[in-house]
Records
---
Amino acid sequence: MRKEYSHYLSETVKDLQPSGIRKFFDLASSMEGVISLGVGEPDFITPWNVREAAILSLEQGFTSYTANPGLLELREEISKYLSTRFSVNYNPANQIIVTIGASQGLDLAFRTILNQGDEVLIVEPAFVAYAPLVAIAGGKPVAISTSPENGFKVTPEQIEQKITNRTKAILLSSPNNPTGSTLNKKDLEKIAEIVEKYDLLVVSDEIYAELVYEDEPYTSFAAIDGMYERTILLNGFSKSFAMTGWRLGMLAAPKALVEVMLKIYQYTTMCAPHMLQHGAIEALRNGYHEVEAMRSSYRRRRNYMVQTLNQIGLPCHNPGGAFYVFPSIKTTGFTSEQFAEELLREEKVAVVPGHVFGESGEGYVRCSYAASMPQLQEALKRMQRFVKARNLV
């Protein structure tokens, strides 16, 4: 006799929807001959010197726990990296935590700052984990919709319209997943005025900070005047250093916030894997030339994708960063999910329907260009054949 468990389940977790990205990834992986533009993962493998450092660490017996926030040596390198690259200075002793990916950093941040019913403003389209993590922490995610007419950038006016007496924080993602939209210094300064006016915190997901393709240098929100004490900064090794499977992230924040986050971390995780932290040290010390090479390759692929999608008849804005394009499929008459399902079934190209990134993502699909150029060329040939065969554009 099958036991019924529904009455045991948390109402919050029971109502969560599975990741729409994973749904299409799992479907695509079960089919042969599929070109996947779905999952946001570099097609590069982790540089050899980084892998070698982790292997050597394992051979030397570094298999024990580390300090909860991570090896001090690694936190010192993270501190140097954030200071050198983004002009933000954090004390490695008490302001930095080595997390299990940037996603755990998000979880720690929300569970630290949110009381039941507190609201977090989320700029959409947005990464699929944001709203669920807010909800799991007892908060209420509040969406702010953006559009390609403004480059999918949020405006201060849009933010202010959504603020209530329950608003605790704003979650910013720049460059954004899925749109690639990137906020420059002027954009951030305008948002900072609203943050100051309403006494808010900012959770700044900067995981794609190294993958910016315009000439203007990247600006961390924590580097904006007056925002250092209001910012929980998240970054990591997955995207920039092609270390997705390593699950290593970095969190930097004011000491008072980090102290509370470590209480959660101590009871839920203990620490990141010891030997992998040695690989991260090597990445920060001697891996930046690889980052530059990957960024250059992604820039070429982005340019190709944007130009070709527009030629096909799927309007696509030019993203400033990350490794995604977010073309409109509204002229086809399909919903995002219909388009993605039919494209996968007929032409074996996997893309992610835009609605999984929030209501404002409906009418778009996310295509990752973290794939080889021959794969991208073939995928776009198939997409062109798909829309032409049905006279969709």
---
Amino acid sequence: MNTKRLLIAAAVTASVVAVLAWAFAPRPQAVELATVQRGLFERTIDEDGKTRVRDRYVVAAPLAGRLERITLREGDRVEAQQVVARLAPTLAPMLDARTLAELRERVGAAEAQVRAAGARAQLAQVRQQQAEDEWQRNQALAQQGFISESRLTSARLAREAALREQAAAAQELETTRHLLAQARAAVRATQPGDSAPGRLFEVRSPIGAQVLRVPQTSEGVVSLGTPLMELGDTADLEIVAELLTSEAVQVQPGMPARIERWGGPQVLEARVKRVEPGAFTKVSALGVEEQRVEVLLELASSPAERAALGDGYRVGVRLVAQSVPDALLVPVSAVFPHPEQPGRMAAFTLRDGRALLRTVEVGGRNGVQAWVRQGLDEAEQVIVYPPPNVHDGVRVQPRKRNQR
């Protein structure tokens, strides 16, 4: 009987010890897991930008006089040589010796501008022919498989840029000829018999474009050089983004970019045209002084895709600073500084229910993903946001989705 009681007591004691051991045994740490995958890795520089007309023309009063009321309004389309304003010259300023000398000097300056614009137009034509020849050669080489697709794309973009440059140079030449004609007409208006009261001097548009701004709409007396309206082609836009100097040093001409958050249904393609050499100080919304640089981008998408954009529109600019097509990707929260090897990175992987500390080499990071060069394999599971009590060899278990 005593033996039976002893056996029962021993069994109860063993059960209690087992329960206590189970109760005080360390629990596996609940962790979040992610799978190592391959895909496109991109590191971008995001900033707000603003559109602006590439070539803006200010139509100014070629002489002092009384301006008739301008009927054109912002958004109206004007053709080249269309009359945009009329001036009734006043006699006193036109007969003034100093004003007459200034008008004659304007003729000389306009003639010099025509010669310079002609030289630039010839240079642009030569560059366009060179780009066209290079494009034809690259096309033939690409068909034979001797050059890459990226080089062919660069040649195509260079050809398009040369065509635009040639068109802009031709337009500039036409504009300078128009300014020369206006300057000569202003001098002729001062000659005897040409300044009779009531005779109207017609101011014509130098290009076919849209009216961007009309600062002077009402009738009134204007002086020589008073801006009458601004003209520009809204189909020929560029984008200006103000980047921090620490980001601008990573940007190079030709770098691809995407234009987002502009209001349209699709993302527009662009590329960096120029990084301005001088920085400026700008105070942020938090009152912090920042050094920023203007970066100019030209749109690569077709005019039909961006037809709704106008001058001065706000857009989102995403510059692609780094792009790796077949990279090993993990969440950026899965990598952290190595606790035992300063200057190196690490990550926890899951193996047999335990956390395994792995040394990794990170090639780049963005706000979401990290590109791992070495240290991990595809399809492995890594611990995301590892808790402080997780270390090498500790038992872990996946956290349920509804567990917080």
